[in-house]
Recover the amino acids of this structure.
């Protein structure tokens, strides 16, 4: 996409992005990191990557066996 744009268009796009970012409220890492850790720990019980997927509900489980003769 950027290859098709002139330098002026790229600068305008970057300026618009920076204007959007300036409007975002910023929070200290000490506060947000704690909140993220608490949320992750609360969601861990339902996370299939942490607890795994039961064999009967696994959509990727092979239906039949492989026989080599």
């Amino acid at each position: 996409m950027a290859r098709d744009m002139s330098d002026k268009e790229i600068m305008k796009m970057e300026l618009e992005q920076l204007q959007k970012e300036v409007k975002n409220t910023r929070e200290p890492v000490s506060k947000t990191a704690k909140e993220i850790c608490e949320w992750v720990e609360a969601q861990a019980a339902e996370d299939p990557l942490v607890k795994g997927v039961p064999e009967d509900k696994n959509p990727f489980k092979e239906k039949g066996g492989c026989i080599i003769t």
Q: What stands out?
A: The radius of gyration is 24 Å. The mean pLDDT is 87.
